[in-house]
Design goal:
With 178 residues, this protein is of the alpha+beta class. Helices cover 51% and strands 17% of the residues. Strand 1 and strand 2 form a beta hairpin. Helix 4 packs across helix 7. It is globular.
């Protein structure tokens, strides 16, 4: 079994979505994807034990397995899905430059990492998102944006950034249970 970036993105979105009774169509709308892509990603994430499928009243509910998801995000993702960095471009701040972490890390002479999008508000070094749908979905959902920016800090950050991001990510994903 090969885990794809979209499988991880769908799992993270499932862990932070406010309405726990979402459908495949709703998840596809959240992420700006089609239903078939989301269904395949959910099935693959279930096989990887990032999501748990529970049959209820004639349909299947997918619930996040938060402990397994956090373990993968914190300890495995930086080796599996290494980000590609590129030229200076306009985009949306991510990793240590995102609002969730920017107070902890002053901006220095280095270019900040950004997801390249035409509607971007800042200039920085291009940082490939986990999946092309991440910037679109992050614009519409602050908690998802925070989670994915923290994932990027773990994927491409220095040791201190990764340690702080891991702690914050556990809080963001656990906070959605309430």
């Amino acid at each position: 079994m090969l885990l794809k970036p979209l499988d991880v993105v769908v799992s993270v979105k499932a862990a932070v979505v406010s309405d726990t009774r979402w459908t495949i169509a709703q998840m596809a709308a959240y992420l700006g994807l089609d239903n078939a892509q989301v269904f395949r990603a959910m099935r693959q994430a279930t096989n990887a034990q990032l999501l748990v499928a529970e049959p209820r009243k004639g349909r299947v509910e997918y619930l996040p397995h938060r402990a397994a998801l956090l373990e993968l995000l914190i300890h495995g993702l930086k080796y599996m899905m290494v980000p590609t960095r590129g030229r200076v471009t306009r985009g949306m701040p991510t990793a240590h430059a995102a609002p969730v972490m920017s107070q902890r890390f002053p901006t220095g002479a280095d270019q900040i990492p950004v997801w390249p999008i035409p509607e971007g508000t800042v200039r920085g070094e291009s940082f490939e998102p986990l999946h092309r749908c991440v910037p679109f979905a992050s614009v519409h959902d602050r908690q998802f944006y925070d989670a994915m920016a923290l994932v990027d800090a773990i994927r491409g950050g220095r040791a201190r950034e990764r340690a702080i991001a891991a702690t914050l990510l556990a809080e963001v994903i656990s906070a959605s249970r309430k």
